[in-house]
Amino acid sequence: MSSLLALSACFLRTAAAADIVRATLKNGLRVVIVRNTLAPVVTTQVNYLVGAKESPPGFPGMAHAQEHMMFRGSPGLSAAQLSNLIAALGGEFNADTQQTVTQYFFTVPADALDVALHIEAVRMRDVLDTEKLWKQERGAIEQEVAQDLSDPQYIFYTRLLEAMFAGTPYAHDALGTRPSFQRTTGAMLKKFHKTWYGPNNAILIIVGDVDPNRTLAKVRRLFEAIPRRPVPPRPAVQLPPPKPATITLDTDLPYGLDVVAYRLPGYGSPDFAAGQVLADVLDSRRGNLYALVPEGKALFAGFNASALPKAAFGYAMAAFPHGGDGSALVTMMKDIIADYVKNGVPEGLVEAAKHHEVADAEFQKNSVAGMAAAWSQALAVEGRNSPEDDIEAIKKVTPADVNRVAREYLVNDTAVEAVLTARPSGQPVESKGSRGKESFAPQETKRVALPSWAKKAMAPPALPALSVKPTVTVLPNGLRLIVQPETISPTISVFGQVKNNPYLQAPKGQEGVADVLAGLFSYGTATLNRLAFQEALDEIAANESAGTSFSLQVLAERFERGAQLLADHLLHPALPEDAFKIVRKETISTVAGQLQSPAYLSNRALRTALYPKDDPALREATPDTVASLTLEHVQDYYNKVFRPDLTTIVVIGQVTPEQARGIIEKYFGGWKSQGPKPETDLPPVPLSKRSATAVPDASRVQSEVTLAETVGLTRSHPDYYALQVGNHVLTGAFYATRLYRDLRERSGLVYSVEAWLRAGKTRSLYQVSYACDPPNVSKARALVERNLHQMQTTPVTAAELRQAKTLLLRQIPLSRSSTDNLAG
What we know:
single chain; alpha+beta; Cytochrome Bc1 Complex, Chain A, domain 1; six-stranded mixed β-sheet; 29 helices; 42% helix; Insulinase family protein; metal ion binding; MPP/UQCRC_Complex; signal
């Protein structure tokens, strides 16, 4: 294992030496440019070293509010111009406010880098932040607050922060509150930008298919003239000693959740790396926390951690059935932690955790945006020199270090305990579906002229070159193999799918058999039990999952062993009798909770309204159908569903098509199908009829709305592409598209609104989703329906048509920006 650690670190250093350029401009802006040729795309991330911690007293969320206002325009670049540019660049953008940093992301075709950099330079120099614009945006950000306050897990997170870090700036997250936003003014936001958004308080990360030196020259030309600004002292963080606390909450989840939380060392501590390894050890599938699941004591269990500069917090977490005893599970988790503190953690798990951290650093290269995020995390959030600093620190961690940190920090007497109890909210009821006629958005929108530097972006892009040229073969047993060589990292990723449909393939009265089978895959293979199989994966630092969807991430030199383990898992799952009894019991509990959860009831009501009463998609598992299952039922279902002639495997990475075929055929070639191919495509359905249903959810302060209908075309219909283009006139590029302009930019009714065409082989669905305050449901719906009617009766403008086509064409190269996206 130590040799693999050294080899992976060597790969990291080699890549860094050849493809990384750094500079600090005269105004203090730090710049890092990393060449990554996975796809003809580039990601820019501007990190401003200001976050929730710097929000003024009494105004939590000001950093978050300024993040929103960065999309409301700057001198020389209005919100409308910015939105049109975002659409022209492909629409992949976002922003994020954390405790200590605010980040702005663009992922664009490589030939559009100039435009993305221009946008960020304009926004760094100044921002409008007028009172009028803030009043418009305030409605949207208040809907984001309502959205998060409708999530019991978010409520728990905020209460956990308060308990862990009371009296410090860390006690509040970045979201903010409605009262604080009502008191905030445009002038306050303008001052906040002027204070904190200077180039000397920012780090620019650029990752992608670029020439680093030429790119640096562009950065100097666009950013170096922006004046530096004095940065005020930052709020001090004086952490009090940890104190015990208890949190109790009701939740709309289909299960209860128990948490035991501890303070851990933060980024600035020399023990941070040991704390990371400790968290990984506690979360191991070979660890005692996860063992609660196969022992039948928890539905799932693990350990998570989140870090800040002065401190981190980690929490053991386990789920219990609806109506179960949460307090008993809390005691079990505390006993497990106490045993690790007393007797030490297994040395093998420490080495496995280190091994995985090093391999994961290589896997990060398989995503352009992911690699940019890793550099931003290292430099802007953690204050490192590069992501490799964390890897070097982790390599030096010893079992003694991990045990010392465990003894110091995992103190049950000062732990914060939480129990989230699942509570039903009632059954769906028929709604009159008010069609409020109020509408305050203009009937037509005006196109805007762009700055001279941006006009090139609006030109229709050329058809993207086919840089991806996979080799496709079909093995003698019918298995379809697709291989795409990539050399960006010394890794190989495998993605697979067995075409299946439980609605059609589960025998009558055995609904839920697919869920039980899925749960049994975690128990190893016929030759390697659960722990031995996980240990074999740890030995090669592989990430693997098996089921009707399966995957493998592994270092290239260990590809054959990884493929062997994946094949053994998929073709020869253990399916032990004792495990079957546990999984069946857990599935009964899970299904019972799901049948009472608002999320399930909402989805069920939607499907019932969309499809005929005897449609296979309306079949559902119940506690009784799951209780009736036998191990023989599960084995029979596995034998009928898992077959090579319905399986596709995609291999992407540092491998030739010949090598990949040789290894896949070696371990999957003996797999044989039994009987004729089953039917896996649902039958066509008639057009749905108008209806409305309301589902109570006591946990939500905001209404979540879904408008859906079946549509009379399928994926092969000639009108499919016309409908997709039309849908991208409505949504897909923020304020440059109609629904976002009407429902968010102008009215502030929603935080987000999305529309999808889910076109299948035999049936299709069109859906619009949004969330808003309950009194505004009908107002927002009226705007959606008016937009849909306008699309049906009035031709779109030439500019909108060109924009939608450009957006879709630009998204083609962007879809290749990670191996996950490449696999589809």
